[in-house]
Amino acid sequence: MTQHPTRRDLLTTAACAATLGLPSSGLAAGGGRALYGSCVKLSALDAEPDYAAEIVKRCQLVVPEGALKWADLRPSRERFDFTDADRLAAFAGRHGMRLRGHTLAWYGAMPDWPEAITSRAEAERELVRHIETVASRYVGLVASWDVVNEAVADRPKDASDLRSFVWTRTLGPDYIPIAFRAAASADPLARLVLNEYDIECADERSVMRRAVLLNLLRSLRDKGVPIHGVGLQGHLHGDRPIDRAGLQNFLVQVRAMGLDVLVTELDVIDDKLPADVATRDAKAAEIARTFLTTIAEVTPPSAVLTWGISDRHTWVPQWFKREDGMPNRPLPLDAAMRPKPLMSVVEQFARASA
Ligand code: XIL
After folding, report:
1. What CA–CA distance (Å, rounded) separates 301 from 108?
2. Whole-angstrom distance between the N-terminal and C-terminal Cα of the chain?
3. Angle at 32 between CA 31 and CA 34, to 5 degrees
4. Is residue 337 classed exposed, middle or buried when 0-12, 13-18 and 19+ CB atoms within 10 A define those classes?
5. Does residue 238 have a pLDDT over 50?
6. Under 8 Å between Cβ of 110 and 166
7. Rounded CA separation 118/114 (Å)
8. Is 265 in the pocket of ligand 1 (CB under 6 A)?
């Protein structure tokens, strides 16, 4: 029988991989499967022991759902509030898990005060100061940082169309190399990741989003920017088929640039799936299996994280409520912490069991 590595082995190999500057995928996959992780809702961690227990039992990686975003960390230009991020870091440390950092530059969850920035020099100063202060705090604990999140325009008009927000308005596309360089100098041990969503389908929008992302990755590589991986968020829509050929073609080009691939925010948005729970759960599992198989056939992901572990705490109803009023079921455990078919799929690719 194959001996699966213990959590401690995995942590050690992942840490070594980072220290040696090697892609963590080959090393960390000692047992043939990636590290598993979930985003964590801090308020539930203390209040709900069954939720905390599942995180401890199944995860080797945790990522705060909000605590490392600008809106949470930076109530004002003068202040950094690390209360919640430090709590999760301590929890991870206590339980032998590593953190994923999410995220240093993102248009979402920005406080208002950076909108007052007008000059390029001031923008660069604030962006770099934020990244240096935040990323230097968790060196050794953070396995990888989503340095830049969702850089591609939501509906790109052409293959260079980036999302416009405060950093593009002040720094243009240079905000991306600036952010990666600041992150590399603040945390030389972490794998640095560009994280993106909606690139796995066959529709024109997904095809264009892949093209923009590849262009961006090539330009970063050509500039010698320190980037180690691409995060596929994997907020899959249960009713939208995966473009196997398109996604694999994209991944072959990503691997040719020497980049790791991570699945960072997997869940299955089920607003358009049938009401019957068994049918719905089976469909969710099936689309996730297709997504993960499609990726693994090109390159085993170095980590698989779901955006939450239980249907009790999910962002999905904020945007994708069902018309029949039934609760969404996007995650591997149901609201009572019972494993669903999606958990078995995740376990085929990642070590999501104790
Ligand atoms: C979401 C959180 O889950 C919500 O609670 C919050 O209100 C908004 O942000 N892609 C990302 C995550 O990269 O940061 C988002 O998280 C979900 C989509």
Report:
1. 26
2. 17
3. 95
4. middle
5. yes
6. yes
7. 9
8. yes
Query: Which residue, 123, 173, 122, is CA-closest to 148?
Result: 173
CB atoms within 10 A of CB 267: 25
149 lines ligand 1 (CB under 6 A): yes
Nearest of 282, 337, 344 to residue 36 by alpha carbon? 344
SS3 of 273-313: CCCCHHHHHHHHHHHHHHHHHHHHHHCCCCEEEECCCECCC
CA distance 136 to 183: 8
Average pLDDT of 317-346?
98
Residue 128 burial (10 A CB sphere; 0-12, 13-18, 19+): middle
Tokens of 225: 């920017």
CA atoms within 13 Å, Cβ hemisphere of 218: 11
Report the nearest-CA residue for atom 17 of ligand 1: 315
Mutate to test the pocket of ligand 1, among 42, 65, 165 (most ligand atoms within 8 A of CB): 65
Nearest residue to 216 via CA among 295, 261, 128, 151: 151
66, two tokens: 């909000």
150 catalytically annotated: yes
* Token couple for 42: 């801090």
Q: What is the pLDDT of residues 186-204, one digit of tens each?
A: 999 999 999 999 999 999 9
The pLDDT tens digits for 264-317 are 999 999 999 999 999 999 999 999 999 999 999 999 999 999 999 999 999 999
Is-contact 263 235, C-beta < 8 A?
no
